[in-house]
Every structure is written in C-alpha cells, then in structure tokens.
Design a protein that fits this description.
CATH architecture of one domain in chain A: 2-Layer Sandwich
Number of helices of chain A: 4
Number of helices of chain B: 5
Oligomer: heterodimer
Number of strands of chain B: 8
CATH topology of one domain in chain A: Nucleotidyltransferase, domain 5
Structural class of chain B: alpha/beta
Mean pLDDT of chain A: 83
Low-confidence stretches of chain A: none
Strand order of the largest sheet of chain B: 5-4-3-6-7
Largest interface: A-B, 42 and 50 residues
CATH architecture of one domain in chain B: 2-Layer Sandwich
Radius of gyration of chain A: 21 Å
Shape of chain B: elongated
Order of helices and strands of chain B: HHEEEHEEHEHEE
Mean pLDDT of chain B: 85
Helix content of chain B: 25-40%
Low-confidence stretches of chain B: none
Strand content of chain B: 15-25%
CATH class of one domain in chain A: Alpha Beta
Shape of chain A: extended
Number of strands of chain A: 6
Radius of gyration of chain B: 27 Å
Order of helices and strands of chain A: HEEEEHEHHE
Helix content of chain A: 25-40%
Largest sheet of chain B: 5 strands, mixed
Strand content of chain A: 15-25%
Distance between the termini of chain A: 67 Å
Chain lengths: 170, 156
C-alpha cells in the first residue's frame, strides 16, 4: 500500500507544473534625458527597415502595404543582405528594424508583428550558428565565445519610436 | 456465562495501527489535490495573444505583473480596458509607484534583474500599453515581458 502511495506521490510531484509566465522578452530603451540629449547619429536609410502598423492593424513596410506572412522573409533578407541589394542593409552589424505603431493598433497585432521580427532574428542567428558551429544558437554554451560571436554578428536592434499621439486619446 | 468473565479480566488489546499510514497518505493526497496555489484575485480578462517565439521567465519571484484588459464585471467597472496592479484597479499614474514599491522588496543586488510582465488582453489598444511602457521607462524598469502563450501564429 505504501508503495502505491509513494508512486502516486512521485507521479503528482513530477506532473504538477507551476504555471510559469511565458512571452516575448524585450528591453525598453532608457527614458530620454531631455536636458542632455544624446548626439544624433546619422543612420543611412537603407540600414533601417521601417515597419509601421496603423490603427486598422494594417502593415506598412518600407512604405509598401504588406501582409504579415512576408515580413519574416523580408526582415531576414534585410539582416543577411550584406550590401548586395542597394535598398537593404549594408551589413548585419548596421541593420536596424524600426517599429512604429499607432495608439489605435491592437495589442494582438503589435505582438504578432514583434513576433515576426523576433522570429527573423532567431532564424538568422540559428542559421549562422549552424553554419559556423554546427549547432543551433540555443544549444551553444550559454556565455561562451560562440554564443557571443553570433550575438555580435546579428545584434538584435529593434527600435521603437517615441510615441506620438495623433488626434484623440493623446 | 463464565466465558465473558474470563475476558473482562484480561487487559484490552492495543489498537491496530497498521492502517495508520494509509490514513496519513489519504490526508496528504486530499490536501495535495484540494489545495490551490494562492490565486490572486483577477479583476480583468486577460486573453493573451499567441506567439511562436516565447521565452520563459527564469525566476518567478523576480517578476512583477501588470494586468490589462476589460473588467470581468462590466456592471461595476465598465467595459473599457483597465489596469490591475496586485488586487486592485489602478491608473497609468500608479504604475511608477507600484514598480518602486515592488523593487524595494528585493535586495539591491538583484534589482536590475527584475522583470515586468505585461499581461494584456489581445483586444487592448496600443495607446494604453504605450502609456504603461513610458511609465516603466521613467522608473528605469526596462526589462519587460509581453506575456503570451506559445503556439503557431499562422502557417508559413
């Protein structure tokens, strides 16, 4: 009897999971210091992939209406361009993705777009890690040289514009 | 009736304890199954979006939660999305105070690792989220987790 009880006990111990929180991890930029603004850095337009989401949840990428399915592909092209296409980034080190949204954009749509950008970065990093180290990025030793190399090669630069209020609700 | 007299003179036998472990285990299981983890009072609906690139939080106690969504009881709180901090409704202006309070509960060494989890309903407009983000930036709480459940968004 005790055996059965222990078996059950162990079973419950193993199967019970505390629900941990999951989600997209982001780092916000520090609050701008208005008295002492940072020097403006000149960004070439080709290095910045401009993504806009309007209040009707429509997507505008580089001034062209786009469906979300193509966003990952385009972002990956942007990151891995290395100067080939004159409209996309000069190198992965300089590539920036700029994400702008309206106050009326739905949170779901915003996360969906953010997710596609994250996916592009993750895939690009994975491919690079596989080609160079023979393993996906997540399997590289945590703080090792290889992981750091991949990270410096494809730094995640998703910039979010300072919010501007259009019309009501500002 | 000499039989009964004989017995009454003898000492009564000890209680059989062989089933005691069973009773103890039964109690243990009863409490294990019946006990719920402390469930905070949730005042707003938070049906989080589904995304594919989810990450887990490393340490649960290092996370502060901001819940955003339409109130569960529209008769009392209306239908417009509200912010919930701890067990109460709050305004955007309360976010800073909340983060500072929570930060002070932790030792100085780990304060930089604290994450704020924004658990928001998918229907919420970005205007509100942006306001919260601005507040977070002002108190230098820059690590943010947009709470979401893992899954495939759409077929590729």
């Amino acid at each position: 009897m005790a055996d059965i009880a222990f078996l059950l006990l162990v079973f419950f111990l193993v199967t019970t999971t505390m629900d941990t929180d999951k989600g997209l991890r982001v780092k916000l930029p520090p609050y701008p210091d208005f008295t002492n603004p940072p020097p403006k850095t000149e960004q070439y337009e080709r290095n910045v992939l401009e993504v806009l989401v309007n209040s009707n949840d429509q997507l505008l990428v580089e001034n062209q209406l786009m469906s979300i399915e193509g966003l990952t592909k385009l972002t990956k092209d942007h990151l891995t361009n290395e100067g080939r296409n004159p409209k996309l980034a000069e190198s992965s080190l300089k590539a920036i993705v700029s994400l702008k949204n309206d106050r009326g954009t739905s949170y779901e749509r915003y996360l969906e777009v953010y997710n596609e950008l994250m996916r592009a970065y993750n895939e690009v990093r994975n491919e690079y890690a596989l080609a160079k180290y023979g393993r996906p990025y997540n399997d590289l030793p945590g703080n090792g040289e290889s992981a750091k190399d991949v990270k410096t090669k494809y730094p995640m630069k998703i910039s979010e514009a300072e919010p501007v209020s259009y019309g009501e609700g500002g | 009736m000499s039989k009964f007299k004989k017995n009454s003179k003898k000492e009564s036998p000890g209680i059989n304890t062989s089933s005691l472990p069973d009773i103890v285990f039964m109690l243990l299981f009863f409490f294990m199954v019946a006990t719920k983890m402390r469930d905070p009072k949730v005042l707003v609906t938070t049906a989080v979006p589904i995304v594919s690139e989810v990450e887990k939080v490393e340490k649960k106690s290092w996370v502060n939660y901001i819940l955003v969504g339409p109130p569960r009881d529209p008769a009392v709180a209306g239908t417009a999305p509200r912010i919930q901090l701890d067990d109460k409704f709050a305004d955007v202006a309360d976010v800073q105070q909340y983060i500072i309070l929570k930060r002070n509960e932790h030792p100085e060494a780990i304060r930089d690792y604290l994450t704020t989890s924004i658990k928001s309903d998918r229907s919420v407009k970005m205007g509100l989220i942006q306001d919260i983000k601005q507040e977070l930036r002002q108190v230098n709480a820059l690590k943010v987790l947009y709470s979401a459940s893992g899954g495939e968004v759409h077929e590729h």
